[in-house]
Design goal:
238 residues; mainly alpha; 10 helices; globular; transmembrane; transmembrane helix
């Protein structure tokens, strides 16, 4: 678990999101899937707080006003689905999600044209659902913002959305009593050193490797993890 968390936060240290895509397939083999998202929400909240405090004021406020209401609505829907869905449905959904994201990233897809402001609705809504259910909707926000903003404004606005999304998930799970017991809190505390190591390594790696090269390698690992999770589920059915 420490190795999975450390690798996940290497990605976070470089890209600002993506921890669930790396850590979840491994953690799913070691703990109940329904507990993974609340655990990562707790850890992501502390990891993203610094970025939010440092860059939040420079974000594109108009885009935040467009996306945030739909992000919050999607988070409510996703949290309800996560708490109500049958547990045996979550592993294949998670496997399909991370595999689909990895294939999309490896294909190098980019928006063909500038998005209209109305695109904030589907991207914000489904990003919120994915954030609550799988712990990562960041790639959907990135698709939308890359079709609306320049590179620098996109980076800051994306960081702010990730911070808001993480805080929203944390509050929703807190209200639902997910953190009523001490088990998840103790686990998050035990994994905190691995998280800090990963954040430090992510910053160091960016000095010698381009972000695009590193994320391409990571997406191959994510794809393999998602396929392995689906294969494990199919073997159980057989």
């Amino acid at each position: 678990m420490c190795a999975a968390i450390a690798c996940a936060y290497v990605i976070f240290g470089m890209a600002g999101f993506g921890t669930a895509l790396v850590a979840s397939p491994v953690l799913a083999c070691l703990m109940p899937v329904a507990q993974i998202v609340p655990l990562l929400a707790l850890m992501d909240c502390s990891a993203s707080a610094l970025n939010l405090l440092r860059d939040g004021r420079n974000a594109d406020r108009a885009e935040l006003r467009r996306v945030l209401p739909w992000l919050l609505a999607g988070s409510l829907a996703g949290a309800a689905l996560l708490l109500k869905l049958r547990a045996d449905l979550l592993p294949p959904l998670l496997g399909l999600f991370v595999s689909g994201y990895a294939l999309w990233s490896l294909a190098g897809k980019r928006p063909a044209a500038r998005f209209t402001p109305r695109a904030a609705l589907p991207f914000g809504l489904f990003g919120g659902v994915c954030s609550a259910m799988f712990g990562s909707g960041g790639f959907l926000y990135a698709i939308y913002l890359s079709g609306r903003l320049g590179k620098d404004a996109m980076r800051v606005t994306q960081s702010t959305l990730i911070g808001a999304s993480t805080l929203t998930r944390l509050l929703l799970f807190l209200a639902a009593g997910v953190y009523a017991g001490a088990a998840l809190l103790k686990l998050a505390l035990a994994l905190a050193p691995a998280m800090m190591l990963g954040l430090w390594a992510g910053r160091r790696i960016t000095l010698g490797l381009s972000r695009e090269q590193f994320l391409r390698m990571v997406n191959l690992v994510v794809l393999a993890s998602g396929v392995a999770l689906l294969a494990r589920w199919l073997l159980r059915l057989a």
